[in-house]
Structures are given as C-alpha cells and as structure tokens.
Design brief:
160 residues; Conserved hypothetical protein from pyrococcus furiosus pfu- 392566-001, ParB domain; 7 helices; disordered N terminus
Length: 160
Amino acid sequence: MLNFTLFGREFGQPDYEDPNQLKLFMRPQELMDTIKYSADEGIVDRETRNHGTRDRIMSRVWGTKRSELYGPHYASLVNSIKTHGVLRPVTIEDIPGKPLSMGQGHHRVVAANMVEQQTGKPVFIPVTYDDDYAHGDFAENFPVSLAEKQFRNKRPGANR
C-alpha cells in the first residue's frame, strides 16, 4: 500500500510530523516557500546589486528561472512535465539548524508550478538530499528514464 506520509496532509497524513523524516516528494509551491537559500542566488544578486531579505532574494531567483523557461533551452520542459511529470529529483542540502538550500532543479520547480496553475492538477517533485547541493555532476550522472529519452528524441532539432 502507498505510504501517504510521503505526499503530505492533503493525501491523508496524520496531524503530526516527524522532524527527522525528510519529504521524498514535494509540490512546487511548497518547495518555493520552504527553500531559503540557493546555489544560484549569487548570480541574481550580482545582476541586481540589490541585497535584500531571504524572501526577496529567493523571489528574484524564482523569477529569473521562470523567465529562462521561455528561452530555447527550456522550451519543452513545461510540456514534458505535463506529459510525464517531473522525472529527475531536485537536490536539497539539509543541514540541521539551517534553512533548506537548493542546488539542482530550480527550472523543474518553476515549470511544475506553471503546470499546476495551468491544469489545476497537483504535480509532485521527487526530492533528493545531498551534503553537496551544488555539485555539478548530479544531472549528468543521474539515470535518464526511458520516457525522458523518448521525449527528448521527439523535440525539434534533437539528435536522433
């Protein structure tokens, strides 16, 4: 039987939470509300030269990632998530006593949020926890599912 505690309260989770249990799936808005630091926030701060509160900095990070979704590199991400869901986990660094930090997966979170807003259906994002949230080899070494390979091959200009 499916363990509903992986998905949160709206799917039957009891009224208590185990603080030692990390969530394996999160919805996009939950991630956006929870993440207080990002591997990419330095880029946004350099561009704006405007340091602010954690929420303002993260709002700029999410806004930057949303605008990048309209570029050619991420053009099919929203459609892929509509069709297949989020296939790769996002990477979060969880250090006791510190807010959660995100390394890999900002575009997936924002695209999943857009899909939820467009369709009204919940999108669950797999989450992995790593002590080095910004490592660059994660995306290359994570196995790509057959569905993702097939979707990539259908994109215009894809190598076949």
